[in-house]
Amino acid sequence: MTKPIAIQLWSVQEACREDFFGTLERIAEMGYDGVEFAGYYDRSAADLKAKLAELGLGIAGSHIPYEKLRDELDTVIAFEQELGNDYIVCPWADFETEAEWIEFAKSLRVIAEQVRARGLHFVYHNHAHEFKRLGNDYILDVLLAGVHGLEVELDTYWVHHAGVDVVPYMERWADRMPLVHLKDMKRDPVVESTEIGNGVLAVKRFAELAEQNGVKWLIIEQEAFDKDQLLSVEIGLKNLRKMVGK
């Protein structure tokens, strides 16, 4: 396995709120290759870039709310360019009606065009609800088919959670998938995420297929915890490295 492994910093948001740069230092000490941002905690792009360089951490991408992309896109792009981030990720959207989803797709076309014109990638991150149907197709398929240049950061956990077979879906969009979220699932007492390697999902298979498909980053994410967040994501990294032989 040659692909770098990043952590989605949403997973350790409590630690980030308490000491953002200290948390980045811990992430580097664990052996992560990079980070995916979920907020900047009032740090400037220049300060963030310098800190990442000091720690030897790369940037897998950044989750930026849709409303900010829609309303402040020029500011967003300028910040990401200064930071040195190539992947702008829309992390969430949900609507009640088909008409609202169609309008959302139109908005994504405008955003994608401007992001790509500035030399960056525009990516959508899925949850489970994008596997509801618009007509005969999944919502996520409608977005990817209808928005030129849009790429996907496939969250394998949520694909499985939606009842969709992950491997064929990864293969379907292999050429539009630069980033992959790896997250494991436990089913007792409830369905929720857990450390990579401590759940029931075929994470090793997903990682191997992502490698074959030429993804740029494997990104660990965890949303539910029964121990310290930093300890959990360290366990997840160690287990993933064992799985992929890295």
UniProtKB/TrEMBL annotation:
PANTHER family: HYDROXYPYRUVATE ISOMERASE (PTHR12110), INOSOSE DEHYDRATASE (PTHR12110:SF41)
A molecular function (GO) term: isomerase activity
InterPro entries with a match to the protein in the record: IolE/XylAMocC-like, Xyl_isomerase-like_sf, Xyl_isomerase-like_TIM-brl
Protein name stated in the entry: Sugar phosphate isomerase
Xylose isomerase-like TIM barrel domain boundaries: 24-240
Pfam families in the record: AP_endonuc_2 (PF01261)
Superkingdom to which the source organism belongs: Bacteria
Taxonomic source organism: Listeria weihenstephanensis
This protein's UniProt keywords: Isomerase
